[in-house]
Amino acid sequence: MFASSTPGDLIAFQPENRAEELVLFRLFSRVEPPDCWLTHDVDVYEGLDEDLAREAATDGSFAPGTRALVVVAPEIAEEATP
Q: Cα separation of 15 and 27, whole Å?
């Protein structure tokens, strides 16, 4: 699993396989939009793997790794930012 935190309030998680993706789907189901969303724009978040997204896309646009789960979490983001 790749993770990225922005200087603001966002944390992005990119799964490397189906098991990690299922965990993120569970998290997604527990957080209400607009505080959580899936994105294909993994290149926007530093720390996520663009190569994994490109390679995974050959298996389909919704294959594990092609998308990242973005969560608005100000307290966690502050702790995760070096």
A: 12
Q: What is the mean pLDDT of each run of 10 residues along the chain (82 residues)?
A: 84 94 91 86 90 90 91 65 52
In DSSP terms, 37 is beta-bridged to 70
CB 12 within 8 A of CB 48: yes
Tokens of 70: 């973005």
For every residue of 28-43, which 3-state class applies, written as one string?
HHHCCCCCEEEECCHH
DSSP reduced 3-state for 69 = strand
CA–CA distance, 64 with 79 (Å, rounded to integer) = 27
| Cα dihedral across residues 4, 75, 72, 28: positive or negative | positive
CA distance 20 to 81: 22
